[in-house]
Amino acid sequence: MHSKMRVVLGQFQTFDEEMAKFALQLGISEIQMNTPALPGEKIWTFEALKDLKERIESYGLKWTAIENVPLIFYDKVILGLPGRDEQIENYCQTIRNMGKLGIPMLGHHFSPTFVWRTTTQAPGRGGARATAFDERQLRPGDNAFREKMARKRHLLDYDVFEAVDGMTADDLFDNYRYFMDAVLPTAEKAGVMLALHPDDPPLRRFGGIQRMVTSLEDYKRAMEIGNSPAWGVNLCLGCCSEKGGRDCALEMIRYLGVRKKILSVHFRDVQGTLPCFQECFLGEGNYDPAEILYELGKVGYEGIIMEDHVLKMDYDSDYGHRARSHEIGYIQGMIQMMDFACGEK
Question: In the chain, what are the domains?
């Protein structure tokens, strides 16, 4: 066992002094940003990334990863629409810019619908509010549902549902191969790792929309496409738990971990599995967090771990500082205890 796993602060878009102090006071020295609020409608320029990186480093923090560019940067790539080659070139330039600045990881998904929940107000522990998903509430033929999904994800200047109606998993994988064939050589040269996040919830199809990564078999297929040292997985333990609870999480870790394809970990859990689940605090979900962390250590994982979705606690901020402090401290304590038990300290 080892002590090279470390917690980073993630899942925010805007960096400021408050966020910097929050990280530092929690004992965190690295950050990940999800779709950072940077100027640009098609690409992030070197200058914009450089300015943000310098502000981050002025507080003694390291910018370790970016998760996701805006969907409008590569929506045509996902859907195989005209204009995707221009988007791919812009994506490659963003990778080059990151490489020049020493930002080593770029996460991505390949879903037209991104994350979806049927409520954000499910009652959680002590009255905290949780997101939840119930497939039985979906009405695929309901135009209002489809319009709500489009508005929620800001899906663009064309009818996304017209583009995806009739798409199959094979179509999405073909589009993903086209994308990876173009961007992986750039990533290898730039020294930037590309981490693929699964679909959430891990349903093969819902609301009439096909999705690509919903199981270990899907990840195996994506891994064959991403046959490069620059390709790996953003392992979302929450999505694993949504799919099949503890067993699914352990299966993912063991298969992907021994192949050194886990690049980052989202450490969260849910209660219940598809077709119905609810997010929860660590320690009250489908798996034992200590067992999962120990399994990551057993397969030799040495990368970053971050809190992900958190419950809405009373009197908390929109970002969820209270809930995130709890999750982060929980994970930090487990890592320290694992190191102690294994004789690392």
Answer: 6-342 (3.20.20.150)
